[in-house]
Amino acid sequence: MTSLGKLIKSLKGYDVIMKSTGIVRKMDELGRIVIPMELRMTMGIEIKDPIEILVGDDECIALKKYQPSCVFCDETENTEYFKGKLVCGACRREMAAQ
Question: What number is the average pLDDT over the span 15-38?
């Protein structure tokens, strides 16, 4: 597994297969990089969508469409805010049972 794949797996618990797109972009004077339209369309990224930036210990950077998730288990479905923190239904039930 590539270092980037290990990075994402370790941060989010995903099994990831990364592949090169063959696309190379230059950073502009303000530090911006344009994500090609084809990739944005494929990944379902719209204008103003939040993008999460993940970094590794060996100069790897990964971009991921941000999805809020449970602070305890990273579940993205059936989540609600509790005292300012996002918590899923399963974790809410587990906390209520204790």
Answer: 87
